[in-house]
Structure formats: structure tokens, C-alpha cells
């Protein structure tokens, strides 16, 4: 029969009580067109299921090459090794190279940390201003500007980081090459500002007006109301926004590939160039790695690690968003 | 005197004295936004200033060249972008809208199965874009499908990438259509599909169009997954079908990075200017559509 759904509930119930019908006799059996309805429903459901297929495909495409990779490289060596010398070419064998992924992971999180130092204060400041201070007109102009920042392609950000921002920063810091983690980190920070700002603004706008009015009634000014009432009430949403920003930064590829260099080495100095996980994937892929070579498999190993890390971060963010949606 | 009154008294006095605090706070907030805007306008100014020199007809009519960068263009990349984004729209929009219609109009919202699909889509929306490249590389470019590094592979990669975005924005647009419209249609005897097709979808078109345009503009600017599915090859001909080799504008810009001669830099900036103009136009169209047609019920 018809789906149990808020919009169809009424229909199926009428069909269920033909005895109560007082008017002329009509045929209530499903008409032929209902077969079409079923086909359409199946088609729509198939489209929705495609997303599950995509996820399964991602997991499968990452897992299969992992078997070959980990039969040659120990899991411990991969996860905790501090040297990553995998490079382009198929001349070398598994034993010629070191497969410790830590340098890539450390570089990824270093760039992410720099991005957050830029994006969290700026994004939150912008969000608070837009949600609590800006007039309706100002909001109408400023929100598209933020969207514009999110709309600039990352390859453009990367190119500008390398050719404009790095030379500017070079006047203040001593870089030993044109590649540095600092410059892509800062640019990436601006890239994730819209993510953090718009989600935090949503969370703060969702705080009921009554809470603000209560605060004003107690004599608090706008700043105190914002900091002590609105901000704490929206905190889980704000944290979710930041967590999603972290996920964006960890998975961002082009900016770091272009501006952070292709040297994988363990460093905590943001002035040095450092290859991230995504940077490695892009570097190997742009050289068309021969299928079956060690470096080809390592691409999937790094990809799988990246997928797991971002998956965990995303789940945390989704959980937090649910929490604040339920709150009010 | 109890501690509570003491702190209250203290707080009140502090509040009266600190009249500077709130205005400093407001200024800092304003400065955050000003800095963000300044950064954006600085980038745009740099792009225009450096890109305008080579922003000529050669750029869109000539093919890339490693020997004559001063007259080289990005024709193959421009046509590649058109092909790939058309294909992306062709694949992602029907599938994404259909999935959203199912989840919003047909599915039982609280069934565990549908909640799993929903969670899954939220997750996919935040998966790093390179991962989509790996997926398509593993299944489509190489065995089992083995179609190679062609337009179709790029289109599939970008379609899968924007699919969650299309689904999420379409669902929001459908949710904004008031329940009364559905009830009215169903009460007149229309089936669920007739209601969806004739009433709900037309009412949601502005929202769906806005979301789709923004999703497509994201696909157009994307380079990372395409690098994995082989768009980085040096292509000097326009694609002539979905099984043709290709490159796109963002990938072409990426390819120009290691070339540090001034002529190549100028060409890269001109290509960036072209890409930004296309995206700005699409964004403007989306914003205009939203403001012009979006009805508040």
C-alpha cells in the first residue's frame, strides 16, 4: 500500500474504511498508474542508495590495495615510523625505502594548526558580529562576501600562497626555500573562515531571543549577553563548526601541494617546507604512478589513513550539531 | 553580607566602570570582518592586476605551449572544463535531486535505514576531495571499468563529489515548501508522485537551482580529484567526446606552477582571472536567483 508518511497518512486511512462511505459507489482499488508510482519510488530510492554505494566503493577502493601494502610494510612501521622516503618511480623495491607516515601526519596537523590560529578568531569574530551586532542590511552584503571567499578555487589559493603570500612573509621570517608550511597554513585559514563563520552564526542565531531578553532585563549589556549567554548556549554548534573546519583543513589538497613543497621530513618548524598526506597523494598521482609499484600502493595507504582521520573528525562534528539542534 | 551579594555588588561596579570594554569588543568583532574582506579584496586585486596583461583573445583561442608562452592559451583546458562540468551536471543533478526527493517526500524519516543514508550523506559531504579521485582511479580509470583518463572519468569524479551537496541543498529547498501545498494536492486525489512532480518540485525550483549552481561552481574550481584521474597530462587539443583525453582550467593552472618564467606566470594569472570570472558570474547568478525567486511562505 501507500507509504506511511506524514503527507499520505490521510489517503491510506480513507481506503481502510470503505464502510463509512455514504456517497455513490466508487472503485477504491489502486489504479494502474500506481504501478508507475512504485517504479518511480524505486528509482528515487535507488538514487538515495547510491550514496551508500559510493561510501562502500570508497572503503573498498582503499582497502584492497592495503592488503598488498601491509604484506610488505609492517603496520607499526607505517604508523609510527619517523621517516618517509617513498618517492616517484618504480625502480626501487619495498626494502629500499622507509614507509613511516609520521612526517606526513605531523605536517598535516601543523598546517591545520596554523590554519586554525587564523580561522578560529576571525571566523568566530565575524560570526558574532553577523549574528549579534550587524544590521539586516549589513548582513545581506557581508554574507555573500564570505561565500565568495569559500568559492575561490583552492588551486588559486595555492598559487597565490606560493607567489604572493610567501614572498610577503619572507620579509618577516627567514625561509630556507620557497616552500614553507606557514604560508599555505595562513591562506588555508582564510579558506576555512567561511565554514567556521557561517556554521557558528547558524548556531548563535538558533539561540532563542528570550535568553537574550532575559539577560538584558538583568542589566547586562550586549557584550556580556553575547559572551555569557549566547556564546555558551551555542557552544556545541560552534565547536562543531570548528571541528568541521579542522576536517576541511586536514583534507585540503591543492594549497599544500603547491605551496608547502614535496619534501617529506619530520619537522615542527612552520618555516620549513613539509609535505602533508594530501600533498603526497597529489604529488604521486600527478606523476601517473605505475600500477603495482610500491609507491602506487602507498598512495592508497596514505589515502586510507586520511579517510579514517577525517571520518572520525566528521562524526564528532555531526554528533555535536545534532546536540545543539535538539537543545532548542 | 553573603558572598553572593558581594560578587553582585562587585560585578555591578565593574560594569559601570568598564564602559570602554563593550566598544572595544564591538570594534574587535568589526575588525575581524574587515580583515577577512580586506584579504579577499587584496587577492582579487592581485589577480586582476597580474592577470589583465595576458587576458586577451589568445588566452581562449590558442592551445597551451611550452615553447611560446607569450602567445599560448588555455583553449583545451577551457573546453575540457566545459565538457567535464556539463557531464558533472548531467550525472549529479538528476541523481542528487532524486535522492533528495526520496529522503524528503517518500522515506519514513525515523526508520534506521533512512537515518543511516542521511548520516552517510553528511559524512560524504566532508570527505576530502582527493578521496573521490582515489575512488574513481581505482574503479573507473583502471580495472574493472578501465576507461582511462578521459572526460567521463573526470565527470564521474566531480559528480560523486558534488552529489552530497546537491542532495543536502535540494532537501533544504523541499523542506521550505509548506506542508499545506502537499495536503491540498493529496486531498484533491493526486498521487504522491503527482503531488511531488506538479506541486512540490516546481515550488522548490529556485532553491534547487541556487544550490545546484553553487555545487557546480565548486566542481568547476576543483582540481585535486582530477589530478588523480589523469587530467594533468599535457593536452593541446579540445576534447571531442566523453572518451577523449582532457585537462581543465584548475588543473592547467596547477601544471603552470613549476614553470617560473615570467611569461608562464602571466599566463597562469590570466587563466586564474578567467576561472574567477566564470565562478563569480555563477555565484552572482545563484545569489540573484535566490533573491529574485525565493518565496517566503
TrEMBL record, chain A:
GO cellular component, one term: plasma membrane
Region (Disordered), start-end ranges: 1-23
Record-annotated ABC transmembrane type-1 domain positions: 105-317
TM regions (residue ranges): 42-70, 101-127, 148-172, 178-199, 229-247, 295-316
Molecular function terms from GO: phosphate transmembrane transporter activity
SUPFAM superfamilies reported in the protein's UniProt record: MetI-like (SSF161098)
Membrane topology, record value: Multi-pass membrane protein
Top-level taxon in the UniProt lineage: Bacteria
GO biological process: phosphate ion transport
Annotated localization: Cell membrane; Membrane
Keywords: Cell membrane, Membrane, Phosphate transport, Transmembrane, Transmembrane helix, Transport
Pfam family, one: BPD_transp_1
Function: Part of the binding-protein-dependent transport system for phosphate; probably responsible for the translocation of the substrate across the membrane.
Family label: Belongs to the binding-protein-dependent transport system permease family. CysTW subfamily.
Protein name: Phosphate transport system permease protein
Name of the gene: pstC
Automatic annotation (TrEMBL), chain B:
Record bears the keyword Membrane: yes
Example GO biological process: phosphate ion transmembrane transport
Membrane topology: Multi-pass membrane protein
Molecular function (Gene Ontology), one example: phosphate transmembrane transporter activity
Alphabetized SUPFAM superfamilies for the sequence: MetI-like
One Gene Ontology cellular component annotation held by this UniProt entry: plasma membrane
Function description: Part of the binding-protein-dependent transport system for phosphate; probably responsible for the translocation of the substrate across the membrane.
Name by which UniProt lists this protein: Phosphate transport system permease protein PstA
The species this protein was found in: Umezawaea endophytica
